[in-house]
Amino acid sequence: MVDVSGTIRWGILGAGDVCEVKSGPAFQKAAHSELLAVMRRDGDKAADFARRHVVPRWYDSTEALLADPDIDAIYIATPPRFHLEHCLAALDAAKHVYLEKPMAMNANESRAIIEAEKKSRGKVAVAHYRRELPAFKKVGELIADGSIGEVRLAEVNFFLPEVNTLVPDATDNWRLDPVTSGGGLFHDLSPHLLDLLLAYFGKPLSYEGFALRQNAASPADDFVQGTVRFASNIVFKGCWCFSVAPCAASELLVITGNKGRVSCTFFGDEVRFCTDGAEEVIRFTNPLNIQQPMIEQVSSYFLGLRDCPCPTTDGLQVMEIIDRFTGN
Fold first, then answer.
1. Do residue 61 and residue 79 come from a single domain?
2. Domain region containing 60
3. Quick check: 176 and 220 in contact, CB under 8 A?
4. Is residue 319 part of a domain?
5. What phi and psi values does residue 244 have, to the nearest 5 degrees?
6. Of 31, 157, 216, 295, which one has the greatest count of Cβ atoms within 10 A?
7. DSSP 100
8. How far is CA 305 from CA 15, 223, 309, in A?
């Protein structure tokens, strides 16, 4: 099932825009990794992607990609509506799976993936790649080594205007279509943050929230608020709103302890750490292909060299929180 040379040979299912820079080239650069094939339903676009990225093979059907005997693992980069179907098919073909976030449309579909993984020879890892980026790893270190003391509160305000650079084609972007994405921008943007909370604080004890459609023209809820309680009485409170004025845009995670505070943005490259009135700004350089560090760890996991860097049980927990916050 795995190349004896110690390399995972990858196929991408859904080689669209997200694969152009964020992930696709990373499979060619990561250790223990080789990008062997790509698939899109539009064969011309699949062939174009393969030509531009120097990928040896391309396909225009899921069945053909999964039937390739030289492929060890599949990166599922299709919209969430198709994650369950594609993941089950890949596992049935005895392939490992690196599954884009959110893991599925909801927690029930996530449970179905976990059950299929148990019965398959394939392994599944979820693409919560921010776990492996240097800024977020530094935040975890400052929490774990007691630099900010005992954590009291983690909080986020994630506000965006309707027209923004994250979703430039907002009129027809699938991320805003609940039938395809499971919800609105909250379903697309919150999984990384919620997953980081699990990495920092472990399994939550309880969580509650609610969602509203404040913008009547929005196809999905554009306001979400929620709280999570972790062990040691650590509390998280989050608020997401995607119909604010441009001047009110904000995306900041702040973690406060009894000896200090650490904060970082989700799309930046710096961490701010303060104690007793003094603040230190620690800057990092993110990889051009932002998923490369996680792909390296996932490849090592598929080769049996390490534990899973983001298991499906964590992906399920994220979806359970999302479902509770949004009333799904």
1. yes
2. 8-130+290-307
3. yes
4. no
5. -100, 170
6. 295
7. P
8. 27, 42, 11
Residue 316 lies in a domain: no
> What is the model's pLDDT at position 165?
81
pTM above 0.85, yes or no: yes
User: Same domain, yes or no, for 277 and 206?
Assistant: yes
Residue 324 has a pLDDT of: 98
Closest residue by Cα to residue 133 from 300, 314, 304, 293: 293
Say whether both 233 and 297 belong to one domain: no
Rounded Cα gap, residues 160 and 157, in angstroms: 10
Average pLDDT estimate for 250-259: 96
Tokens matching residue 29:
């650069």
Q: Indicate whether 191 belongs to any domain.
A: yes
Same domain for 96 and 144, yes or no, is: no
**pLDDT 10s digits, 140-153:** 999 999 999 999 99
Is the pLDDT at 319 greater than 50? The verdict is yes
Average pLDDT over residues 129-139: 97
CATH number of the domain bearing residue 37: 3.40.50.720
Q: Are residues 151 and 241 in the same domain?
A: yes
pLDDT mean over 230-236: 97
What tens digit of pLDDT does each residue of 163-212 get?
Answer: 888 776 655 788 889 999 999 999 999 999 999 999 999 999 999 999 99
Is the domain of 205 the same as that of 302? no
- Compute the distance between CA of residue 294 and CA of residue 141 in angstroms, rounded to an integer: 18
Task: Determine, yes or no, domain membership for 32.
Answer: yes
**pLDDT for the residue numbered 168:** 62
Q: Checking DSSP bridges between strand 235-241 and strand 270-275, what pairing results, if any?
A: unpaired
pLDDT of amino acid 4: 43
Same domain, 263 and 149: yes
CA distances from 43 to 14, 50, 60, 63, 232 (A): 11, 10, 5, 14, 53
**Half-sphere exposure of residue 295, counting CA atoms within 13 Å on the CB side?**
31
Q: Do 229 and 243 sit in the same domain of this protein?
A: yes
Q: Provide the domain count of the chain.
A: 2
